Amino acid sequence: MSDKNFDIDDILGESKGNVGDTSINAEKPKKSDVDEIDELLASLKNRPRRRISSDDALDNSAEDVSAPASIPEENEAEAVISDDAEAVEEHEEDKETSAIANDDIKKHFGKDADIEDEFDEDEDEDEESEEDDEPVRRSPRKASRSDEERSSGKSRSGKSSGRKKKRGVAFNGSIFGGIILVTIILTVSLLLAVAGLTLGMEYYGIGKDDNEISFNIPEGSTNEQIADLLVENGIIKNKKLFIYTLKIMKPATIYPGDIKLQPSQPYSDIIEELEKQRETYETVTVTFTEGEYLVDIAQKLEDNNVCKAEDFLFEFNRDMGYKFEGYLTENKNVFYSREGYLFPDTYEFYVNDTAYNVCRILRDHYDSKINEAMYKKMNDRGLTLNETITLASIVQLEAANVDEMPRVASVFLNRMRDSDTFPMLQSDTTYNYINKVIKPNTKNDDLVLHYAEYYDTYAIDGLPAGPICNPGMDAINAVLNPEKTDYYYFCNDIETGETFYAETLDEHEKNLVKAGRGDQVVEDTADNGNEDNNE
What does the longest C-alpha to C-alpha distance in the chain come to? Predict the structure, then answer.
């Protein structure tokens, strides 16, 4: 850029002298003039600005400007106005100054499009320069406001976008609410359909047992009591539905007495059977004692004309879905799967009844005897139901009397706890079960040998595969509440019934002599736990 200082009046001097000459005005500016104007524009861009009024700008355009006075940096700093109104006023004054200078150039050179456009471009660049400097003149209040808007992100477009998002959420919420409503309606409909189907199947006895069940309706029983009897005997499951059916059918009379019904009968057929006058069924009383074998019980039922022994054994060893059966696990090595799970007591049966009905009566009674407190004690002692009843069946047959049961139970439990020293229980009662129950009721010798491997406590470690008789409550409680002893041996005097206990094998052999069983004393120098006789 040239270091010369240009005076607008010098440039315009020739035009003033030739104002009346139209030919000059018509001529296009020379190239040198254009270059000079470029330098002038560049000079104007770099020229320090100062505040002038519009009147002063007009006067100064006619005067010589030989060299613009430089403004010190300190004065320029003082000229910076922080107030918004003064900044706007200065900006307007600068524009007016540039406009006056532009007009003077146009008067001298004419309205040439190229020069005018070039000047306009320079003016735009000047305005952009001013905008770059503008942050210096902005007030702190505006800047902080702008910063807040940036930080919060709340621009106009942002607010508009936020509103759009809210409308979107409301729309999605409506859809979601509709989905929930439809889901609720479908769920309720499905539940109602299932409930209706269940009631229908119950009313018509669909999918229920066909076995006949005999029971007695006492004289003077109300409809409520009859409904309770039907539920207790497994004929119906829905008492309210039965009462409602009775109200609809309105039977003339319901006769008391013995009756046989099937769970698979519809409710209407059951009510029709109740309306019939029936004969009284003959009954028989049968007592089962503690420690009886299941095969002996079956034979006793047949002898009393209750049901056939074979039918009873088949039906009794099936799972009938009672609570206690849920604590048992299937074991293929057990000879009778439900041996030990018949509670010894006195029962009244119908003569010529079905095996199913007999087993149902026996199961009901047993399930009522084994309560939650007993299950808890089993769990506390680390015993399963099968282990408890199996050990109780051994105690039932080994103990001379009820008083000795807790102490006899302690001997076997001590051996089970110290299985490294005493791996085998060595009870004669298990060997007797093989000879009296398994062998007579098994035609195949291979099966006898198979079951013997799981029942002979002289040959196997620990308990046999299952109970060996049906123990009473005293034997069961003895296992759950044993006496605290250090005994590992015992023997009974067969003549007097007295029981002798010992902690060591030497003591036990002396006790055998006392019990009149000296012939059972054996020399044992190897393992104290392998030679023993507990009878």
Answer: 168
Strand, helix or coil for residue 452:
helix
Long-range contacts of 59-62 (CB under 8 A, 24+ apart): 61/8, 61/100, 61/101, 61/104, 62/9
Of residues 230, 247, 246, the one with CA closest to residue 238: 230
- Please write down the HEC assignment for all residues of 500-514: EEECCHHHHHHHHHH
Task: Give burial (CB, 10 Å; 0-12/13-18/19+) of 433.
Answer: buried
Predicted confidence pLDDT, tens digits, the chain (535 residues): 444 444 445 544 444 444 444 444 444 445 556 666 767 666 665 555 554 444 444 444 444 434 444 444 444 444 443 445 555 565 666 666 666 555 655 554 554 444 444 445 454 554 544 444 444 444 444 444 444 444 444 444 444 444 444 454 455 668 888 889 999 999 999 999 999 999 999 999 999 989 999 999 999 999 999 999 999 999 999 999 999 999 999 998 899 999 999 999 999 999 999 999 888 899 999 999 999 999 999 999 999 999 999 999 999 999 999 999 999 988 999 999 999 999 999 999 999 999 999 999 999 999 999 999 999 999 999 999 999 999 999 999 999 999 999 999 999 999 999 999 999 999 999 999 999 999 999 988 999 999 999 999 999 999 999 999 999 999 999 999 999 999 999 999 988 889 999 999 999 999 999 988 777 776 443 444 444 445 4
Residues 481, 392 contacting (CB under 8 angstroms): no
How many CB atoms neighbour CB 272 within 10 A? 13
How far apart CA 435 and CA 184 sit, in angstroms, is 66
Cα–Cα distance for residue pair 280/259, rounded to 1 Å: 8
Please report where in the chains the tokens 């009296």 appear, as a residue.
Answer: 436
Report the interhelical angle of 156-204 vs 239-249 (nearest 10°): 60
How far apart CA 100 and CA 119 sit, in angstroms, is: 12
> Quick check: helix, strand or coil at residue 107?
helix
Closest to 282 measured CA to CA, from 356, 349, 377, 363? 349
Compute the distance between CA of residue 150 and CA of residue 467 in angstroms, rounded to an integer. Answer: 85
* Nearest CA-CA partner of 474 in 371, 376, 396: 396
Residues whose CB is less than 8 angstroms from the CB of residue 321 and which lie 6 or more positions away in sequence, other chains included: none
Give CA–CA dist 532/426, Å, rounded: 7
